Amino acid sequence: MASCCRGPSPGRRSLPLLLLLLRVSLVRQASAATTSRLSGYFGTKSRYEEVNQHLLRDPLSLGPPEPGHLLPSAACVPLQLRALIRHGTRFPTEKQIRKLGQLHRLLRSQERACPAAQQLARWDMWYQPEMDGRLAPKGRLDMEQLAQRLVARFPGLLSSQRRFAFASSSKHRCVESSAAFRRGLQLALHPQPSPSDIVHEKTEIDDKLMRFFDHCEKFVTSVEENDTAMYQVDAFKQGPEMKRIQEKIAATLCIPVRDLNADLIQVAFFTCSFELAIKNVNSPWCSLFNEDDAQVLEYLNDLKQYWKRGYGYDINSRSSCILFQDIFKHFDRAIAESKSSMPISSPVILQFGHAETLQPLLALMGFFKDEEPLTADNYKKQMHRKFRSGHIVPYASNLLFVLYHCDQAKTPEEEYQVQIMLNEKLLPFLHSEETVSLYTDLKNHYKDILQNCNFKEECELSKTNNTSTDEL
């Protein structure tokens, strides 16, 4: 067990002290990155290193060059960067911690000799309800290191002479991620303290863009607070794949099957993921699952993401058009300023949100869409699906829009070009399968969303709405 969890009972430790001990433990473990046979299946609870394995060896590496992908010509220079960044590694929510406590108490109450149950009963339940989804020390490292890599990747844009605009969701983990990212910029750009310290720059709280889903009445009523909207998720929880895991784990822990349900099994699985992501250890909770189990539990998590944040209902993605349009509004402004030989007013825009910020936006743009929807009864058919949330929005996931100005363009249309990167990898455009697009071509491809997706109209409930999902 990691050194941070030895000694007095966690209940007698203050939360700040526990966070400090975790930070020290992380530093000690930095040179011995842990891997797990299950780590590729943790969905939105996945650590960022799972999509960029080279970071396990060197957290500041930009990774190998991507073969077959064309970059803009040498005559093209970045004009504006828009970065949408999910917060770094976080602690479990209070709800998850309480469920884990329920499961842990169940195992500690066992009277029968059962090795697996006894091992987990002895496990130090160090999570505290006050942690409630807050940014973990590893999450701060995620952000600091991401900032340093982006400085190395875009030295012309992220320089000490540039202006940075910071915005964040109001959630503590996002605000803290913004602060940690600024510290990373400070380390890269101003190793020595200076009067213009980036670390002290203000972050604007902007839930209108970073938590657009909270402001969309149709989404909140028809999906978020509508129990029937998650029918496919609930059906899969009761399906044969989950029943098999339930029976297997009940037998392993020597407890009646009736004492377990899909939610408790998920909590055990996610505890394995939290221990790896937060503390870089293989938790004893991981021993309950094999790779087949992990694939089933990944699908359960992906089902929820699909129906609540992805392609399941149109309103999931349409609610993000306010953010999508804002990206193009700033690009248009930057191009107008460039054509007028004016300084770019917002060369670098850094926004910190959630998986729920990025996933609907990617769905709105049409990325990672499978031919068939994810449902409770097509698990085997979807084994090779595109929609895998752990590959798309792990902790610290980031979606970068980069606008380039090309001096030696042959035509006016070629003067401004765009690239998109997801998790620091070039994302081919759907209209061309290329990784560079003329800005005019990109605007034309998304013309309907840019012109016809009105957030107020999309999110307004019809007067006859009865929270049915039929019209979604």
Largest sheet: 8 strands, mixed
Helix content: 40-55%
Task: Provide mean pLDDT, rounded.
Answer: 90
CATH class call of the largest domain: Alpha Beta
From the N-terminal CA to the C-terminal CA, the straight-line distance is 48 Å
Order of helices and strands: HEHHHEHEHHHHHHHHEHHEEEEHHH
CATH architecture of the largest domain: 3-Layer(aba) Sandwich
Low-pLDDT sequence parts: 1-12, 27-32
- What proportion strand? 5-15%
Instruction: Give the number of domains.
Output: 2
The shape, in one word, is globular
Structural class, judged by helices and strands?
alpha/beta
Keywords:
472 residues, Rossmann fold, eight-stranded mixed β-sheet, 8 strands, disordered N terminus, inositol bisphosphate phosphatase activity, His_Pase_clade-2, inositol-1,3,4,5,6-pentakisphosphate 3-phosphatase activity, inositol trisphosphate phosphatase activity, glycoprotein
List the helices and strands and how they pair.
Blueprint: H1 15-29, E1 76-86, H2 94-108, H3 115-122, H4 137-153, E2 164-168, H5 172-189, E3 203-205, H6 207-210, H7 217-224, H8 231-237, H9 240-253, H10 262-279, H11 291-308, H12 314-318, H13 321-339, E4 348-353, H14 355-364, H15 389-392, E5 398-406, E6 416-422, E7 425-426, E8 437-438, H16 439-445, H17 447-452, H18 455-459
Parallel strand pairs: 1-4, 2-3, 2-4
Antiparallel strand pairs: 1-5, 5-6, 6-7, 6-8
How is this structure best described in words?
One of its GO terms (biological process) is intracellular monoatomic cation homeostasis. By secondary structure, the protein is an alpha/beta fold. It folds into two domains: 242 residues, 3-Layer(aba) Sandwich (Rossmann fold); 129 residues, no CATH class. The chain contains 18 helices and eight strands. Strands 1, 2, 3, 4, 5, 6, 7 and 8 form an eight-stranded mixed beta sheet that branches. Helix 2 crosses helix 3 and helix 2 packs across helix 10. The longest helix is centred in the C-terminal third of the chain and has 19 residues. It is globular and about 80 Å long. The chain starts with 14 loop residues before the first helix and ends in a 13-residue tail after the last helix.
